[in-house]
Design goal:
Helix 3 packs antiparallel against helix 4. The two termini are 35 Å apart. This protein has 11 helices and 12 strands. The longest helix is centred in the middle third of the chain and has 34 residues, at 94-127. 40% of the residues are buried. With 299 residues, the protein is α/β, with parallel strands linked by helices. A 6-stranded parallel β-sheet has the order 6-11-10-9-8-7. Helices cover 41% and strands 18% of the residues. The protein folds into 2 domains: 3-120 and 278-286, Quinolinate phosphoribosyl transferase, N-terminal domain (Aldehyde Oxidoreductase, domain 3); 158-268, Aldolase class I (TIM Barrel, Alpha-Beta Barrel), CATH 3.20.20. Its EC number is 2.4.2.19.
Amino acid sequence: MDAEGLALLLPPVTLAALVDSWLQEDCPGLNYAALVSGAGPSQAVLWAKSPGVLAGRPFFDAIFTQLNCQVSWFLPEGSKLVPVARVAEVRGPAHSLLLGERVALNTLARCSGIASAAAAAVEAARGAGWTGHVAGTRKTTPGFRLVEKYGLLVGGAASHRYDLGGLVMVKDNHVVAAGGVEKAVRAARQAADFALKVEVECSSLQEAVQAAEAGADLVLLDNFKPKELHPTAAALKAQFPSVAVEASGGITLDNLPQFCGPHIDVISMGMLTQAAPALDFSLKLFAKEAAPVPKIHWS
């Protein structure tokens, strides 16, 4: 999907509510610095100072729209950033521009970092000749899930279920609580009805077969080492070719190719949202038309 079109997934009312909460968190009371900057018209350039994938434009726009500022973009969503890159220009009252600066940079940096990690994972999977789905997980930052799930999509990965209502996932603790795989899957199948798929986390081929026999649509082989994963998936597919297999647990960008195989349909990676480093952006005000290029501080 074209990254530019992904903005249509974001409900305007939800965006506005998120922006309100972010700005309220950063400035819940008096903004003393506004007396320093004043309310005169000002302009700033957004610079990208590290390589990666640009993601998060709708959130950046929504923040500054709320503050009566206008954003002009020079690069489309999903662009590959080569530092130092001039990404956008923001214009508006000086105090408003500076009030939104940190919130907007935080959001863009983290969203772009996740998109960059997702893009790297997809590239590694395709490089291994695998055509399945690289996906995220629910291991997201509380209150920031929409941004992080959106970043996965911009990077070319699947977002996986957005929340508990997107898929009936029967995990190991559900199996214990229900009294076994078969009972858990039957209950999940009844709850899912016709509208939702049922996925079951399994720790052995025996559990996977039980789950498939009970009506699971997907089987999650969690924390399997590659040498155990692929034979287990092959054996399950031989009996239940229509059951999809997901691999998860301990998968990183470095070892991802080892988990790619002909019987694996989905590889989910918590590190895409939990461990992706934020990209480095800066917003620099300028008084004249020629905006100074910021220096990069290499660590």
